[in-house]
Amino acid sequence: MPQILITFPHIWPTMEKESAGKAGILKQETILAWIDELIQKNNTSEPPSLVFAEWICAGRIWVSKAPDNFKAFCLKQLSQRTETSFNPSDLVLAGLAAPLFGEDFSLLEQLSNNHLRLSKLLDPNETGLLQWPSSTPQYWPAVQAAWISSSDQLLKHKLPPSQMEQVIQLKEIYVYETDHQLWQKSKNTYQVLPTATATEILTVANNALAMLAWIPDQDRAEDILSSLRKSAAPWQNKEQAINEWLGPAAYLLFEALKAYEMTQAAQELSNYVNNHLSTTPDNAMQKCLYQLWEESTN
């Protein structure tokens, strides 16, 4: 069982100083509050699909608003890693950080080494499925997708040849095995193995993250959308606000639908969220999500 290493980097004062001269100090403080919540629970006790959806959305805002402090967080995370330590944030770290470190070959190499380390740690038997650390072994589409998405970002930059070859090979294997082992044809969804509860199987995030990682081909993505149209709230229960469809995973599905050129479905999802998302959000995550949706529809 991998050791779960939880860290709490004390970099917030620097970040606040950095943002003091910019518009919207409250906005910066809100971002920090959400990030702080994620760091406090940066462990494997929650379903990874939900963890990664939050980290990706929060991370994107963090990178865009305070890149230097995000880099500081990355460096601290990389410096504290051992061969057996693992945080959920590690799986999305390379994907978020690679664009920032693209010109720094030394840091890019560290990111790549850590990314490859995770594949050995979570797939020690080289089955092509990354195992989520828990009392009972589980294989989540979201875990596969997080690793694959980060790989895509790394491969946009110049890596050492040996690292690049390993990342490409592993990415191809993980895409193939996700599609062949975690796809449930009868429900047109990517599923958790061993099969979990219905809620976990049909979670928005599993399919959203898989699509963002370009795991399904266009036909399979159409099957996912067809299933959503038949059962999901934005298409079947438009008047009722369902929390699952107002969180980070819904925003990532919106992006995924646009990526697959499912423009009408993306607009329908956006309409549902905008109809139900509070214009006076009362916590950090809701405030940040409100900003993401505002920016995406303007």
Q: In terms of topology, how is this protein built?
A:
Elements: E1 3-4, H1 12-19, H2 25-40, H3 48-65, H4 67-79, E2 85-86, H5 90-101, H6 105-122, E3 131-132, E4 138-139, H7 141-154, H8 161-181, E5 183-184, E6 189-190, H9 198-201, H10 204-212, H11 218-231, H12 233-236, H13 248-259, H14 263-276, H15 284-297
Parallel strand pairs: 1-2
Antiparallel strand pairs: 3-4, 5-6
Helix pairs in contact: 1-2, 2-3, 2-15, 3-4, 3-5, 3-10, 3-13, 3-15, 4-5, 5-6, 5-7, 6-7, 6-8, 7-8, 7-10, 10-13, 13-14
Describe this structure in words.
- This protein has 298 residues and is mostly helical.
- The protein has a single domain (3-297), classed as Glycosyltransferase.
- It is 64% helix and 4% strand.
- It is built from 15 helices and six strands.
- The chain has helices at 12-19, 25-40, 48-65, 67-79, 90-101, 105-122, 141-154, 161-181, 198-201, 204-212, 218-231, 233-236, 248-259, 263-276, 284-297; strands at residues 3-4, 85-86, 131-132, 138-139, 183-184, 189-190.
- The strands form three sheets. A two-stranded parallel ribbon has the order 1-2. The chain has a two-stranded antiparallel ribbon with strand order 3-4.
- Strand 5 and strand 6 (189-190) form a beta hairpin.
- The longest helix is centred in the middle third of the chain and has 21 residues, at 161-181.
- The radius of gyration is 19 Å and the shape is globular.
- The N and C termini lie far apart (46 Å).
- Residues 1-26 and 198-202 have low confidence and may be disordered.
